[in-house]
Specification:
The complex is a heterodimer. Chain A is an all-alpha fold. Chain A is 72% helix and 0% strand. The radius of gyration of chain A is 22 Å and the shape is extended. Chain B is built from 14 helices and two strands. In chain B, strand 1 and strand 2 form a beta hairpin. Chain B is globular and about 65 Å long. By secondary structure, chain B is mainly alpha-helical. Chain B has one domain. A two-stranded antiparallel ribbon of chain B has the order 1-2. Classes of the chains: A mainly alpha, B mainly alpha.
Chain lengths: 165, 398
């Protein structure tokens, strides 16, 4: 663990905790953007430029905006009057600990923990593109088709309906 | 001789770094690049505000600023002192924060806006060997930090607790999200041709000269269409007229920064202009050959001078457009983005692919030309059909 990693990890976790515990929903959304940014910085620290920038472009540029719009369109920015924690929080903690414990125990005993990490490779954008065009061409085509359909669908939804007379 | 002049800033930096201890060189090198970028583009910002006010005034048959010059004298220098006067005014004005405003978010919004805009300059090659960071995914970096500005616009509009501010922010975000798609798709055409996301490599790919014209991408059918699409989207992204609905002085007063005053307002103003320069600079890098001279016999002019000549020319064209084109309506804006720009940008990608795989020659030009003009005419006609458009007639007393 290096110093930059510790700083980024602390910032990311702090933003994530703030996103859960702040009272104002918009503040929560903005704190979550901080967590997204911290994750992107962690990717960049691992020399994964493409993934890091895509994280910023998709999550901060699109997902965060979507969340903010959803909050504004569904309810006002009022702060809830009720207490932040529900009265049965103790059960929530118990369930969380149980789930975490089970998962951690399973991972510890599975072969995934014995796997040797791959040696450090320089993943340039060109190599990612080559891999997408050769080994992973089918998933890419399927996703491309799906996204194009979504794009055209958005245009069709936005089209003015023909008024029938 | 021309070579030393071309590399004068690069060699100056190396000469300065030579006097410093080795361990401090990487940090100082970064700081020097940052300082030069901030000083150069802030100066350009000051000059552009003056140019814009003068130019708009000329178009609207006024004088524009013509008083402020050298202080304590009668020399006015065509009002060139105006930017300095405006700067001092912005610095000394009272900073008003509305009582109901969300103080923290209200404070951070202008800061969060300026930082990504300044970051985007990191990957712009402003001359030979003059790029702050030559990233493998430079273009992606530019768009990624550009996407972060949308959020700060929302922060400004929402935290002001003002109907006009929120309306302006919503308009701005809707517009920026819609026009980001044609902006990126038109840049993808260049990426497909070059095969790299690095801005330096994109400029290198346009370095040769072919007869009379340079090999800039704007001089190919797909490149021309891509450049026009890119610049229209760039205008919309920087919220400038005719896409200035988010500000819309006559309807929502000033949009998302209505509750900002003093230096915070100046920061919004600065970010808007720096964003305009950055995206114009990207347009130059992608389509107008970056820092390359337009003719082989003009290469003696330094590369950085060419970049700024092209930049100022583009900015002047943007000022001209602002002075002549009226503001769009919201539905017109959205229809234009989704029904015209998006299909054109997608079809342009097909055009690039065909251009890439055909052998150079006349057939390639004819096919490329047909693939741009055909969709343009068909789309235009299709969208105009049944709209009953005619020349507007004015009625007024003789």
């Amino acid at each position: 663990m290096t110093l930059p990693f510790i700083i980024l990890a602390v910032l990311t976790i702090a933003a994530a905790v703030a996103a859960m515990s702040l009272r104002n929903l918009i503040h929560c959304a903005l704190a979550m953007v901080g967590a997204f940014g911290g994750l992107a910085a962690l990717y960049l620290q691992l020399d994964a430029q493409f993934v890091g920038f895509t994280q910023i472009l998709v999550y901060i540029g699109a997902v965060a905006i979507l969340i903010v719009f959803a909050i504004l369109l569904t309810r006002g920015g009022q702060v809830p009057e009720k207490a932040l924690f529900s009265s049965s929080w103790i059960w929530g903690v118990l369930v969380t600990v149980a789930v975490f414990g089970t998962l951690a125990w399973t991972i510890k005993n599975s072969f995934a923990s014995q796997r040797v990490p791959a040696e450090r490779v320089e993943a340039t954008v060109k190599e990612i593109g080559d891999a997408l065009m050769t080994k992973f061409v089918l998933p890419l085509e399927v996703i491309g088709l799906l996204l194009t359909a979504a794009l055209i669908g958005a245009v069709i939804i936005a089209m003015r309906d023909e008024v029938k007379k | 001789m021309s070579d030393t002049f071309d590399q004068i800033f690069v060699s100056l930096k190396h000469w300065l770094l030579g006097y410093l201890p080795v361990w401090s060189q990487p940090v100082i090198s970064c700081l020097l690049s940052i300082a030069v970028i901030i000083v150069a583009f802030a100066t350009l910002f000051a000059i552009t505000t003056w140019l814009e006010r003068k130019g708009l005034a000329r178009i609207q048959n006024r004088y524009g600023p013509n008083r402020a010059g050298i202080p304590l004298t009668n020399i006015s220098l065509f009002g060139l002192g105006q930017p300095a006067a405006d700067g001092i005014k912005a610095l000394t004005k009272e900073d008003i924060v509305p009582f109901a405003a969300d103080k923290l978010v209200h404070f951070f919004a202008p800061v969060v806006l300026v930082i990504p805009v300044l970051l985007s300059y990191a990957v712009l090659p402003i001359g030979r060997n003059m790029v702050a960071v030559d990233m493998d995914a430079g273009l992606l970096f530019f768009f990624a930090v550009g996407a972060a500005t949308e959020l700060s616009v929302f922060m400004a509009g929402w935290s002001s607790r003002n109907k006009y501010a929120l309306l302006g922010a919503m308009r701005a975000i809707a517009q920026m999200v819609s026009y980001e798609i044609p902006l990126i798709l038109s840049s993808v055409s260049v990426i497909m041709m070059v095969g790299s996301l690095s801005t330096v490599k994109i400029v290198e790919a346009q370095s040769t000269y072919h007869g009379l014209l340079p090999d800039w991408f704007v001089f190919t059918p797909w490149g021309f269409a891509g450049f026009i699409l890119f610049m229209i989207s760039a205008l919309a992204e920087s919220n400038r007229s005719p896409f200035d609905l988010p500000e819309g002085e006559s309807e929502i007063v000033a949009g998302y920064f209505i509750e900002y005053s003093g230096f915070k307002f100046a920061l919004f103003f600065l970010a808007e202009y720096l964003g305009m320069f950055a995206i114009s600079g990207l347009g130059i890098t992608l389509f107008l050959g970056g820092w390359h001279a337009p003719f082989a016999w003009l290469t003696w002019i330094p590369s950085w001078a060419w970049f700024f000549i092209k930049l100022v020319t583009l900015v002047l064209i943007l000022i001209w457009i602002r002075g002549t084109v009226p503001r769009l309506r919201m539905d017109q804006l959205m229809n234009f983005a989704w029904k015209f720009m998006l299909p054109m940008a997608l079809l342009n990608l097909v055009g690039v692919a065909i251009w890439h795989f055909m052998t150079p020659g006349l057939p390639r030009w004819l096919v490329g030309f047909a693939l741009v003009v055909g969709p343009y005419l068909l789309l235009g006609r299709g969208l105009m059909a049944g709209k009953n458009l005619a020349k507007r007639t004015y009625r007024f007393a003789e």
